[in-house]
């Protein structure tokens, strides 16, 4: 792929799929929290830019001609920074905006906006499975006496008498999720509405078992010059712009 120099903002499986199609002149950028691939043709940079101003300086200094935002839908800060920096540096800002999962007939989704609403919604339950990242690890000393938490996230962390921490990285299969749910007898699932296939199986199993899902609402994301729902459509647009 020739085209102008791309700055691809990633940290998701979709972003990695895009990065694999980029040639040596392009840059794949990661925050540095997860795995850093070492088998890409494009260059990889790791770490923050120093806010939107830092990113605008980077865009200008590195002669970037297009910013491609394929970050996670809950990574709202980097998307806001990218939109602002692209505007300031006068380069187009394209974004992959993965569609949210939709509840199906019979699903019991309880939408919450923040941690306080989330813990209120969890009050009636005893064995929640948290699948929304590391945030619960900061609240392990606030677990109500009637609850035992299972927290699945990327970070390794010691179990406590009141919580089990499962360090795991998706994708998660339906069979694997069925086995986990059968073993642990969760009575509620806590999730972000990430969309995509990689982590959707837990919702399928919650449906099979009639479990409620406490769902953290998606944050507002900035408008992009072009938005795509699927990696394939984005790659096609890049090829057309070549
Ligand atoms: P965030 O709150 O939107 O961003 C926090 C800061 O991290 C940004 O201001 C930026 O620092 C830096 N940053 C984030 N993404 C970056 C990137 N791709 N390249 C360079 N710097 C980046 O993001 P977050 O929620 O902490 O997520 C961090 C990363 O993990 C993101 O890349 C995201 O795609 C990935 N991820 C997030 C989630 C989630 O649920 N939030 C789930 C899966 C993967 P500066 O301001 O210094 O530039």
Automatic annotation (TrEMBL):
Its EC number is 1.3.1.54. Coiled coil: none annotated. Pathway: Cofactor biosynthesis; adenosylcobalamin biosynthesis. The gene is cobK. InterPro entries: DHS-like_NAD/FAD-binding_dom (IPR029035), Precorrin-6x_reduct (IPR003723). Keywords: Cobalamin biosynthesis, Oxidoreductase. This is Precorrin-6A reductase. PROSITE patterns: COBK_CBIJ (PS51014). One of its GO terms (molecular function) is precorrin-6A reductase activity. It is an enzyme of class 1 (oxidoreductase). It comes from the Bacteria. Signal peptide: none annotated. One of its GO terms (biological process) is cobalamin biosynthetic process. It holds the Pfam family CbiJ.
């Amino acid at each position: 792929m020739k085209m102008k120099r791309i700055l691809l903002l990633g940290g998701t499986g979709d972003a990695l799929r895009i990065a694999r199609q980029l040639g040596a002149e392009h840059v794949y950028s990661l925050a540095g929290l997860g795995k850093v691939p070492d088998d890409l043709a494009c260059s990889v940079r790791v770490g923050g830019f120093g806010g939107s101003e830092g990113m605008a300086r980077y865009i200008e200094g590195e002669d970037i001609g297009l910013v491609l935002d394929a970050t996670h839908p809950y990574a709202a800060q980097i998307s806001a920074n990218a939109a602002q920096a692209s505007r300031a540096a006068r380069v187009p800002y394209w974004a992959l905006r993965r569609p949210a999962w939709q509840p199906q007939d019979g699903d019991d989704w309880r939408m919450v906006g923040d941690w306080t609403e989330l813990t209120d919604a969890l009050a009636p339950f005893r064995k929640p499975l948290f699948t929304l990242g590391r945030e619960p690890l900061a609240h392990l000393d606030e677990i109500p006496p009637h609850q035992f938490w299972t927290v699945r996230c990327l970070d390794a962390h010691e179990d406590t008498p009141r919580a089990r921490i499962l360090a795991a990285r998706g994708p998660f299969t339906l069979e694997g999720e069925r086995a986990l749910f059968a073993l642990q007898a969760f009575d509620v699932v806590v999730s972000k509405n990430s969309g995509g296939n990689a982590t959707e199986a837990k919702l399928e199993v919650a449906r099979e078992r009639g479990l409620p899902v406490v769902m953290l609402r998606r944050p507002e994301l900035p408008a992009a010059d072009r938005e795509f729902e699927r990696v394939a459509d984005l790659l096609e647009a890049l090829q057309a712009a070549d």
